[in-house]
């Protein structure tokens, strides 16, 4: 495992963060095709940093932290600017952002109380992310008046994204609560063992 901070994999991730203000300014300015190109480039950078990290063994704590942050910053920005352009409804952006904020807040509190516990994305969570990406792409493509984006498709993706965001949000909260319960049980068991050792 590489401990170089600015490894090529991390540099690609940082580049994806730099795409965010460029993407936002293009969308707000109505340059939809250019914004779509930046979005596609960001998607390829997301694939590239993972491939580079695995191929050259450049996994690092910084990279594991930066990658999801870059993804969330780009996605959140995309929902906000597309809602500003009326390409997506504001209520959808509120649902998606509230869901992410709720999960992060709950996970943060549990980590503070019970200690850090690795938590893998669920199937519902992955489906929600996929729906969000598709919604952003096709909503922007519709703004650019590309022929592959009928109104019914964008409308269907909006409804699907909202439903999956709510479902996966509740699922994550339930799973996190279960993890927290397991941590409490483990802590109590450890305490009992320590007491028993001391008594013996």
Number of domains: 2
Provide a count of the helices. 6
Instruction: Note the main sheet.
Output: none
Q: How many angstroms separate the termini?
A: 44 Å
Structural class: mainly alpha
List the helices and strands and how they pair.
Elements: H1 8-28, H2 32-55, H3 61-84, H4 90-114, H5 123-143, H6 151-199
Describe the fold and architecture:
This protein has 200 residues and is mainly α. It contains six helices and no strands. Mean pLDDT is 81; it is low at 184-200. It is globular, with a radius of gyration of 20 Å. It has two domains: 1-85, no CATH class; 86-200. Helices cover 82% and strands 0% of the residues. It has helices at 8-28, 32-55, 61-84, 90-114, 123-143, 151-199.
Q: Can you summarize this structure?
A:
The protein has 200 residues and is mainly α.
For the structure shown, list the relevant keywords.
globular, mainly alpha, 200 residues
